[in-house]
Amino acid sequence: MAHGITLEHHILRRQRAVPEATGELTRLFHQLSLASKIIASKVGKAGLANVLGLTGDVNVQGEEVQKLDIFANNTIVSCVEASGTVCVMGSEEVEEPIAISPHHPKGKYVLQFDPLDGSGNIDINASIGTIFSIHQRKTEGTGPGNLGDCLQPGRDLVAAGYIIYGSSNMLVYSTGDGVHGFTLDPAIGEFFLSHENIVIPERGDTYSINEGNYHRWSEPTQRWVDWIKRPGADDKKAYRLRYIGAMVADFHRTLLTGGIFVYPGDSKNTNGKLRLLYEASPLSFVVEAAGGRASSGEERILDIEPTALHQRTPLFIGSKGDVDDAVAKIFG
Ligand code: AHM
Ligand code: MG
Description:
By secondary structure, the protein is of the alpha+beta class. It folds into 2 domains: 7-195, Fructose-1,6-Bisphosphatase, Chain A, domain 1 (2-Layer Sandwich); 206-331, 3-Layer(aba) Sandwich (D-Maltodextrin-Binding Protein, domain 2). It is built from 8 helices and 15 strands. The strands form 3 sheets. Strands 4-3-5-6-7-8-9-10 form an 8-stranded mixed β-sheet, with helices on both faces. Strands 12-11-13-15-14 form a 5-stranded mixed β-sheet, with helices on both faces. The longest helix has 21 residues, at 24-44. The mean pLDDT is 93. Bound molecules: 2,5-anhydro-1,6-di-O-phosphono-D-mannitol and magnesium ion.
């Protein structure tokens, strides 16, 4: 790995090219990367640090809360809050918008995040991640932000990305023009540029979906899965199935090697499982910046106008050709 360009240097260099930049975005990224190093360190010794298992609580989504979920949430909030760069935050683990303490200045950005995505993987030592998105505030002035600041469509994002805690720890981000990946060197404690200008292949050979839900899918969805995993006309190969159950990990593989990740609506959950603001929208911003596509089936994910913090959306995301096929075959 080249130890040339750190994450901070990369962001700073790009911000210097924006005449109206104040340094706030650079500071926000600095605090986010600090939070992710703290989380990575905790995840790395999860079995030793008495953070495996459940807290005994149930979160706003009705899911059992893992101790590391809460640790990650609190770490991001406390690292970012004091930076004076955000006016409000939103977290998958917290029901309402997170107000900034009156003791801290309010900034011009809105940070929303899924602190620990794929938390079902924590106890089995498989990859998990953090997903984040950054909008400009909509409310005027320098006071606290509100729910309206959080409910913005993905097309208006300033930046988005994720951190994957895996066999190595990586931070991948985009400000809309290109996608860049950084690998944490744990000996030095810095993220270094390792994947510059990631471009998703036009097509892949992998599909990623929880096929255990097959019985709950619409017939067109079932037909699409039957089609994608079989060899077909025009030399179509049988696609391979890969599904770890942590979207960050499934998405990261899809971004690097192509293919499609899907969490469709089904007879139990018409809008699927994934949250628009914390999961679908930021990763859709990243995939589009890498040349891919993301759709709910009915519309472009980035064009969905959110109406609630924790709303869900069906998601078809990945290589443009593969998402085009799925949407055409399922939605006509
Ligand atoms: P989480 O944010 O509570 O961890 O849930 C989201 C996760 C995604 O990472 C993953 O793609 C999906 O849930 C897996 O769900 P399922 O077990 O239904 O396949
Ligand atoms: Mg999640």
